[in-house]
Design brief:
By secondary structure, this protein is mainly α. The chain contains three helices and no strands. Among the domains are: 55 residues; 33 residues, no CATH class.
Amino acid sequence: MSFKLSLGLAGLLVISIAINVILLTKLDKAKIELQTAISNQVILERTIQEQNEQIKKVLADAKKTAEQIQSLNVRYNESQAQVTKLRNKFAKFNLEGMALTDPLTLQGKINRATARVGDDLTNITNSNQFDENTNNNTNTVN
């Protein structure tokens, strides 16, 4: 009976060792998976931080663009008002009749207007007008 008992205990020992090896293997695998998950979490957090910074930058750029569009719309409306004013001013004149009755006065008006147009073209074609670093407040002469 002692032989059977020794054989049974040896069998239990072998089974116990086998279960221990299996559990240690699973434990090692779980440790590797845990380490992988921790590494992936660090990478994910870094990626999220970078994307958040990119989103903030894009939003700031979009805000700046919207402000520039608003500024351009204001300037466009001002220029349209100026065009309307000039059209109304020209509508008041009978240039054909003035050319026949008082050509020298008409010539003087045309010369002054041409000079103002030249000045206005110089102002509006200023290459620094959109430069944010300079305070260029030149407006066209009405």
